[in-house]
What does this fold into?
Amino acid sequence: MAYSDFSLEQLKTQFELELVENSELFRETAAYPVAEVFLQGLEANVTLALAIDTEKARSEFIIAPILGEYRKILQNSISLFSGVEFNVEPAAGLNGVCDFIVSLSSEQFYINAPILALVEAKNDKIKAGVAQCIAEMIAARLFNERKGNPLETVYGIVTTGSLWRFFRLSGKKAYIDTEEYHVRDVRKIFGILLEIVQK
It folds into this structure.
């Protein structure tokens, strides 16, 4: 079993998790004034990615540039990992390759303090990636506990590249944001990403 094999029902049972579905996690979060030159480049990338219309194109031309700019804005104080194995507790199914992990550390050669797991939605279906994302968030929290770096809250994202949906894991509750943010509202997405680190 791996992260992608979980269902929400399995997660609730195995990890005694409560799903909180009607959460307005970031409604009050302010948009971030992203550099105009980045926005122009992203607009061209989005057009290209949507024309190619594959998961790989969306990952390379939309998701990765946004996360790269996120790291740049934070002056490389976070680390970013793409397509890495994150085997935390294989016996419990908390293992497999993660699309992206953001770590609250400048160490780029190894994962140190994961705070955010990002899952690329398969077949443009956000809902299909929710259980996988929450499983990765559970693994991130367990990883941090074992490293003596207990972070009570970790975050998750499921995205098609065009649409971004956010999640929060605190205690035994997994909060699912009611909103989906479109990439054309990328200033709001950056505001949320930055708030996650600040919290």
User: Anything to note?
Assistant: Helices lie at 8-14, 36-52, 55-73, 130-146, 186-198.
